[in-house]
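Quick start: what a row looks like.
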Amino acid sequence: MERNESVDGDVQASEYLENEEICERDDPLSDGECTLRIGEALVCSSEHEIDVGFCQNQQGKIEEEATGEFDEQSGLLVERKEFDAPAVGMEFESYDDAYNYYNCYATEVGFRVRVKNSWFKRRSKEKYGAVLCCSSQGFKRINDVNRVRKETRTGCPAMIRMRQVDSKRWRVLEVTLDHNHLLGSKLYKSVRRIGTGTKRKSVSSPVSDAKTIKLYRAHVMDSGNNVNPNSTMKKQFQNSAGSPDLLNLKRGDSAAIYNYFCRMQLTNPNFFYLMDVNDEGQLRNVFWADAFSKVSCCFFGDVIFIDNSYITGKFEIPLVTFTGVNHHGQTTLLSCGLLAGETMESYHWLLKVWLSLMKCSPQTIVTNRCKPLEAAISQVFPRSHHRFSLTHIMKKIPEKLGGLHNYDGVRKAFTKAVYETLKVVEFETAWGFMVHNFGVIDNEWLRSLYEERVKWAPVYLKDTFFAGIAAASPGETLNPFFERYIHKQTPLKEFLDKYELALQKKHKEETLSDIESLTLNTMELKTKCSFETQLSRIFTRNMFKKFQVEVEEMYSCFSTTQLHVDGPFVIFLVKERIQVESNRREIRDFEVLYNRSVGEVRCICSCFNFCGYLCRHALCVLNFNGIEEIPLRYILPRWRKDYIRVHLADNGLTGFVDGTDRVQWFDQLYKNALQVVEEGAVSLDHYKVAMQALQQSLDKVHSLEDKQD
């Protein structure tokens, strides 16, 4: 077991150092003087070493040599300096250097430092982790409440968390800079009130040697020669409010972005982010993707939805998300971006980065209607099918047509033209009736929709594969991934907190769905149809439930007859009773083309391309022709329970591993561990064996660390 040490008392830097010499504190400038020279290249492609001069009790330093001003309220002569606050990614040669740096920073800001936690290795007792916090962190224990000493703790959140890394340096992993109490006024209690013009000499101290701390910046970004390494972090994140080609950052956004990205990259070797800056080092666009998103893209990157509704809707956050559909039919996040604006240049940069990272050219891309994004997609993904989101268009109807005096009639006619037409001629007729009958032929929005109808109207999209993203039926919607986590006024800092919560919830849903799929049994069958039994053994539970509806609705199809025969090709007519408004039922005809020689079947409703499984009409035709099992070509691998495991085997991900590529190590370990998780969730016995194997593997990894001590 690793040992955790907690220290409740206030700890000064001098108490921690090995010489254990305690300095007198007659005034704030007489000792503990810190001079920091921190380099400015914080975002770079190679490790950057920075010297930080930490000079204690410099002999002969007098007041005139400092630039300061007298604080009348506190009676202190306060020196005004520009100190870089602790940041995620800083590295130090030793724990002593890290502690002294933070204590020096604390002295200048005006608070005391306390060691909250320490972690030690089991055998060598070597310290490998620590949390340093403000002395006002936490509260008194209940047993201490009756003590005479006044309560000084306020539950202050300020802290840094650091850990020893492979290089034996100490790296800062987490930083909280905010305090919930006044700073500086109570730090020095024995300072005499000094009148203006009074000169003071520093009090000599036994410790007079200057100590130099080596401060390093970790790898925080792979610039790919796109970022000027000489530009400062300050420039990269300077506020660009009001500038159309720069990212609009509010106060505190820069620190929030930087700390979050560095923390994710340091704790997750496969986390990637890239920043687009101009020649002046000002931030324009940002892209990021985590390890889970990368893996998901390998499996489900054939059909993606690029959602820019947060930008077009004028949200506080200029967010763009890339999402796909996993093997349960659930939305899965593939990556995110922050853009300076709705320009073709910004979208082009974002798509190029996505393509270079994911190494995937989607078969189908669904977006909201946006000319700059459309132009960028045509350049970056010229072979992909670009289609518009029908959900987005239908949601725009009240906004675009709500002012019409005959709005209800137009809305119903529009809906009927979109959802109830099966042939192009039917759609054209229904559209013509709407615009002429209600006098909206000159409506600009309707005119623009009609001009682009081949990109959004379902009747034109039957040859495009959507994997359920199309939402081509009434009641189906394509919602934003962060719909319940972001509103128009959500600030960026709050979003970054909610981002992880949203991902955790989605990952939990997927894990639970995996478990449910492995335990699916015949008790959930609702018919005696062989098609239902067949796919209950293959599909994930969620996708099987969707297909099960089609099997049940086969009984609403009461007639299957041949219309035309041309050699092996036969056109069947399937009649179905469909429920419409006011619980009325009407009969509709669906034509199904069947190729007897190769077993191909295609319905005019094109459910297979829209949803990824056969419809009730096609199933009726197969049943009519004596087919008892669905042909394999209509059982998509992406809906299988074992899809991820099979996909790994097919792509040879258990072969050669580069001995220097940590990212590849992570990929291999993560993807192969998924197989253990899937098999271990089958039953309680499987679970126990899997847990034992994982624990044994972890113990062996820890034993290697102990041998290296």
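That is the whole record. The longest helix spans residues 492-518. Residues 5-82, 185-242, 647-657 have pLDDT under 50 and may be disordered.
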